[in-house]
């Protein structure tokens, strides 16, 4: 049985970190404090960058997992912390999701796979690394490595009460795919379907699949933009910041 709730909305702007933190806390960016992939914290005069997009630095990416970087930026209780207040002994696993505060275990893909797919994610760099053409293989390897970790742990006791599995490739590949985001998502879901089947098989073999609630979320969609001046974010006199200036904002 399945149910679709089409009333759920992403954040505005629907950037990955702001949207996922909202999904994992249940409150908007104004309350949890994470307003983008990169944003300026005025009170501390500090640039927060849980998902670097303007510079390349693998340390910033890895610190989300190794140093609780995003966990420390979030100013609202996570869904895991709220669950634990109600059920102190609940067992929670999180695989690859950036926000895991309150969980018992963080399951990760191999470090090399994370760095290759996430570190300083810039479209033309990714294309250069894989021969000048966008390919889903780089991201498929990352997701497969994450699911390897999950399946290995599901073979052992005790099994978790809550399991969060973050599949990043659907989003990352849609950003760079030459065929456009709509076809890219369809292509990638065919690739990841067999990987999700491994998780389902592992749960079925442990007698848990028929007793699980499965919730599927996404942080945002991908809307193709026509490649012409009329639809460009940049104005005739410069980069996207000119749009704000033309709207009357003083920057």
Keywords:
251 residues, mainly alpha, 3-stranded parallel sheet, two-stranded antiparallel ribbon, 11 helices, 5 strands, globular
Architecture overview:
With 251 residues, this protein is mainly α. Helices cover 43% and strands 7% of the residues. It contains 11 helices and 5 strands. It has helices spanning 16-25, 29-32, 58-66, 69-73, 79-86, 111-118, 123-129, 137-154, 169-176, 181-205, 241-246; strands at 39-41, 46-48, 92-95, 105-107, 162-165. A 3-stranded parallel beta sheet has the order 4-3-5. Strands 1-2 form a two-stranded antiparallel sheet. Helix 8 runs antiparallel to helix 9. The longest helix is centred in the C-terminal third of the chain and has 25 residues, at 181-205. The radius of gyration is 19 Å and the shape is globular.
């Amino acid at each position: 049985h399945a149910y679709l709730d089409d009333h759920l909305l992403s954040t505005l702007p629907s950037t990955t970190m702001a949207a996922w933190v909202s999904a994992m806390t249940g409150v908007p960016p104004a309350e949890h404090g994470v307003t983008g992939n990169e944003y300026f914290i005025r009170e501390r005069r500090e640039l927060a960058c849980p998902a670097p997009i303007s510079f390349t630095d693998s340390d910033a990416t890895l610190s989300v997992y190794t140093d609780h970087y995003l966990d420390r930026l979030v100013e609202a209780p996570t869904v895991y912390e709220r669950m634990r207040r109600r059920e102190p002994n609940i067992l929670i696993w999180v695989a690859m999701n950036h926000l895991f505060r309150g969980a018992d275990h963080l399951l990760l893909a191999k470090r090399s796979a994370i760095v290759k797919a996430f570190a300083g994610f810039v479209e033309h760099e990714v294309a250069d690394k894989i021969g000048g053409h966008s390919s889903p293989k780089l991201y498929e390897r990352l997701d497969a490595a994450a699911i390897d970790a999950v399946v290995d742990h599901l073979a052992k006791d005790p099994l978790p009460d809550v399991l969060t599995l973050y599949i990043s490739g659907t989003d990352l590949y849609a950003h760079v795919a030459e065929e456009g985001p709509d076809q890219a998502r369809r292509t990638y879901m065919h690739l990841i379907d067999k990987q999700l089947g491994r998780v389902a098989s592992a749960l079925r073999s442990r007698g848990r699949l028929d007793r699980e609630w499965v919730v599927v979320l996404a942080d945002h969609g991908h809307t193709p933009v026509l490649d012409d001046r009329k639809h460009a974010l940049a104005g005739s006199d410069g980069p996207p910041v000119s749009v704000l200036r033309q709207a009357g904002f003083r920057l």
